[in-house]
Design a protein that fits this description.
Length: 427
């Protein structure tokens, strides 16, 4: 048998280190070649690293949250053959000889321990009779007087007598606070309230740490300007229902997002300053012709932003299909690094959570973000009459260093116009 020392591999794309997200094996586990052993997060994505050999895990290096440079040994296996022990070459452990035990001294025989007396069998607890709310506790005048002297509310004393009548013994048990049969009875319908003082420490690692770092960087360096608007999507809802009823075979069911994506394509074409990336270090704004839309997606592992690329070249069915693909892959943990990079503008949807508004944080280095809220039927005034219309709220944030408030608001107004007159989206 030999030892195989496995080094953190070069994941590519200039990555020089990775954060341990999760060890999928433990010391003593037997693995096969290509079995996943380690999940590592880089600046690009989370990557699962497979086992290079068949063997038994003898050592793992690094815990969740630790940063491991590329090229350092991260795990060792016991394998058939010679292995590659030279790659690890651990120093031999120093042998510690145990100190010789002193010769035992003769000790006098201990005196036999006295046989303990059998413990008294506790008396069974008296049956507790709950009283209906507002019902006066039953007790003799003598018991009531004792209760007043002891500052005890008889409504909270368990009575073991007929119909829940409280005896002197019941009162004694209650005052003792926990003796056999002493229960702090509550009127029927009352609920127990218990103070809680526990805490739980949760280490911020992996994706959550990356999100935290990104949000801090964005919010601390970008002066956010936010703008809100409401959109009448009644006509859009009718079109959506019609298209879903007549959609091509195999096509996904349309939500509002594909329409918003198509509206953004037209609006960003008129406001190219909003489809851009800002390099803080060089003070250069790069406007993009390609419209690569990030779709903020909540998963069990945290918030990811998969990207639908070149939406400008897609029709609504293609946009919906690709959005479904990248978001589903992200939720399943199968999104590639390419699926999670390259956005020029981001949409964040609060979906069914709704809300009246939000202040979304810009996905740096982008210069704008659009927030979509739930569409609801509301009573509105139209042509002097109160009518029911379907209304959707939009939120937006802009990098005020490079996008003027007027320009950001103009883009939202263009989107509003296209969504309220959905035929214009396709013209």
């Amino acid at each position: 048998m030999g030892t195989f020392a496995f080094k953190m591999p070069d994941i590519g794309e200039g990555v020089v280190e990775g954060e341990v997200v999760e060890w999928m094996v433990a010391v003593g586990d037997s693995v096969k070649e290509d079995d996943p052993i380690l999940s590592v997060m880089t600046d690009k994505a989370t990557v699962e690293i497979p086992s290079p050999v068949d063997g038994k895990v003898t050592k793992v290096i690094g815990e969740a949250g630790d940063i491991l440079p590329v090229g350092v040994v991260c795990i060792e296996f016991e394998v058939d053959g010679d292995g590659n022990a030279s790659a690890s070459a651990p120093a031999p452990e120093a042998k510690v000889e145990p100190a010789p035990a002193p010769e035992p001294k003769a000790e006098p025989a201990p005196a036999p321990a006295p046989t303990p007396a059998p413990a008294a069998t506790p008396a069974p607890a008296p049956a507790v009779v709950e009283r209906a709310p507002g019902t006066k506790a039953l007790a003799s005048p003598a018991v009531r007087q004792r209760a007043r002297q002891a500052n005890v509310d008889l409504n909270f004393v368990a009575g073991s007598g007929p119909a829940g009548r409280i005896s002197h013994a019941d009162l004694d048990a209650h005052i003792a606070g926990g003796a056999n049969g002493a229960s702090r009875a509550r009127p029927m319908g009352a609920s127990a309230r218990v103070e809680k003082n526990g805490t739980e420490d949760i280490k911020v690692i992996g994706l959550r740490r990356k999100i935290a770092e990104g949000m801090v960087s964005s919010y601390s360096t970008i002066p956010h300007f936010s703008y809100f608007e409401e959109v009448d999507v009644t006509a859009l809802e009718e079109l959506r229902q019609h298209l879903n009823a007549t959609r091509p075979e195999g096509a996904p069911k349309l939500t509002y997002l594909p329409f918003i994506m198509q509206a953004l394509v037209k609006a960003l074409d008129e406001r190219p300053e909003c489809n851009a990336l800002y390099d803080d270090d060089s003070n250069v704004v790069t406007r993009h012709e390609a419209i690569n839309l990030g779709i903020a997606t909540q998963t069990d592992r945290g918030l990811f932003v998969p990207v639908v690329k070149h939406v400008e070249a897609m029709d609504i069915w293609q946009a919906a299909t690709e959005m479904t693909r990248v978001t589903s892959a992200t939720r399943d943990g199968k999104a590639t690094a390419d699926d999670l990079s390259g956005s020029t503008f981001t949409i964040t949807s609060l979906g069914r959570l709704g809300g009246l508004g939000a202040t979304p944080i810009i996905n740096k280095p982008e210069v704008g973000i659009l927030g979509v809220h739930n569409a609801k039927d509301r009573a509105v005034v139209k042509d002097g009459n109160i009518v029911i219309r379907r209304i959707m709220n939009l939120s937006s944030s802009w990098d005020h260093r490079v996008v003027d408030g007027h320009d950001g608001a103009s883009l939202v107004q263009l989107i509003k116009s296209y969504l309220e007159h959905p035929a214009t989206i396709f013209m």
